């Protein structure tokens, strides 16, 4: 299976971590979204230009949550990450949709502010923080996001939350989220390794773009 990805965005890293957790061998194809030739390659494979995009026996699967569910359905022999129980799945699905909205708010704030060095969009930041606060309230009496064990909901949400450091949002302001992150991090193989690679790639980009040495 081929995986087209970019190391900086959290959705791609979530799929990479899942592949390590389930011992899935993927042919990794890194796409530089600023390179017209590489984007042409991605567009030929997936006209929607989704990253990550998975190719499984000719089937094109885009959007990280869809990829996570597909790989889990194939390789999670224990059936714990995306259980067949429809009640549990409904909770996981709700949280994955919530994660999509939260990540969208993050991108719409971070892209102009961090990447393009434009003035901060305080309205979008407020929308993002509303999402983080909602998650903090949701996790108040929960160890894991959905049910009594680690699931795809934890995996996906954790990657979005981990990116808040880029825009200087302190997890200490959200104690339930901070506690939950401490709990789920050991469940994600090579999470920190991929996180470091993403930070280095972003720093390199900013250095080339603006002469900045750090995020």
Automatic annotation (TrEMBL):
Encoding gene per record: 5568347
Matching CDD domains: GST_C_Delta_Epsilon
Name of protein: glutathione transferase
Catalysis: reaction(s): RX + glutathione = an S-substituted glutathione + a halide anion + H(+)
Gene3D superfamilies, alphabetized: 1.20.1050.10, Glutaredoxin
This protein's UniProt keywords: Transferase
Any one GO BP annotation for this protein: glutathione metabolic process
Pfam family, one: GST_C
EC number: 2.5.1.18
Transmembrane spans: none
SUPFAM superfamilies the UniProt entry points to: GST C-terminal domain-like, Thioredoxin-like
PANTHER family: GLUTATHIONE S TRANSFERASE D10, ISOFORM A-RELATED (PTHR43969)
Family: Belongs to the GST superfamily. Theta family.
Molecular-function GO terms, alphabetical: glutathione transferase activity
InterPro entries: Glutathione-S-Trfase_C-like (IPR010987), Glutathione-S-Trfase_C_sf (IPR036282), Glutathione_S-Trfase (IPR040079), Glutathione_S-Trfase_N (IPR004045), GST_C (IPR004046), Thioredoxin-like_sf (IPR036249)
Subunit structure: Homodimer.
């Amino acid at each position: 299976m081929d995986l087209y990805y970019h190391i900086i965005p959290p959705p791609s890293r979530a799929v990479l971590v899942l592949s390590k957790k389930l011992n899935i061998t993927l042919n990794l194809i890194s796409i530089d979204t600023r390179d017209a030739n590489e984007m042409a390659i991605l567009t030929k494979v997936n006209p929607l230009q989704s990253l990550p995009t998975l190719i499984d026996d000719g089937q094109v699967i885009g959007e990280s949550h869809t990829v996570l569910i597909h790989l889990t359905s194939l390789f999670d022999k224990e059936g714990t990450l995306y259980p067949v129980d429809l009640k549990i799945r409904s909770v996981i699905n709700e949280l994955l949709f919530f994660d999509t909205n939260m990540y969208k708010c993050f991108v719409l704030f971070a892209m102009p502010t961090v990447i393009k060095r434009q003035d901060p969009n305080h309205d979008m930041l407020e929308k993002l923080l509303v999402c983080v606060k909602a998650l903090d309230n949701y996790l108040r009496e929960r160890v894991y996001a959905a049910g009594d064990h680690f699931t795809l909901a934890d995996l996906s949400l954790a990657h979005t939350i981990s990116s808040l450091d880029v825009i200087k949002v302190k997890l200490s302001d959200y104690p339930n989220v901070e506690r939950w992150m401490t709990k789920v991090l050991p469940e994600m193989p090579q999470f920190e390794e991929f996180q470091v690679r993403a930070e280095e790639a972003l720093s390199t980009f900013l250095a080339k773009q603006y002469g900045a040495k750090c995020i």
